[in-house]
Amino acid sequence: NITEQTVTLLENGKAVESFPGSSGAVGTDSPLGDYTIYAKMDAIDMRGPGYFAPKVPWVMVFKGDYTMHGNYWATSFGRRSSHGCVGLPVETAHHVYNWAPIGTPIRIHE
């Protein structure tokens, strides 16, 4: 939820857990829409214009370079601050990574 800056896990259409996250900052917005996790990696290096983040953990890919992942460099969550990915505290990302198999649907919405 972009407005609330939360990631909510659903089972059979019912919310079972919710966590603070951080989506894309204005100008590097997270893409709104419905997606599916189609790849997962324990850790990868991420780079883009003006940044390099080595060994980003618990990466779940849902659209091209857009992922949900552990964000070890963030000091707070619940505000828009990423380059478009959905960042979570590392421990939370690990939990979600283990909970969500490839094929899990993701909805990014306001």
Give your account of this protein's structure.
By secondary structure, the protein is mainly beta. It contains 1 helix and 8 strands. It has one helix spanning 90-99; strands spanning 6-11, 14-20, 33-36, 39-48, 51-63, 66-70, 86-88, 105-108.
Strands side by side in the biggest sheet: 4-5-6-7
Describe the biggest sheet? 4 strands, mixed
What low-confidence regions span 5 or more consecutive residues with pLDDT below 50? none
What portion of residues belong to β-strands? over 45%
Judging from the principal axes of the Cα atoms, what is the shape? globular
**What structural class do you assign from the helix and strand content?**
mainly beta
Number of strands: 8
The percent of residues in helical segments reads under 10%
| Assembly state (oligomeric) | single chain
Which key phrases capture this entry?
110 residues, mainly beta, two-stranded antiparallel sheet, 8 strands
In short:
With 110 residues, this protein is mostly beta strands.
What's the helix and strand layout?
Elements lengths: L5 E6 L2 E7 L12 E4 L2 E10 L2 E13 L2 E5 L15 E3 L1 H10 L5 E4 L2
Parallel strand pairs: 6-7
Antiparallel strand pairs: 1-2, 3-8, 4-5, 5-6
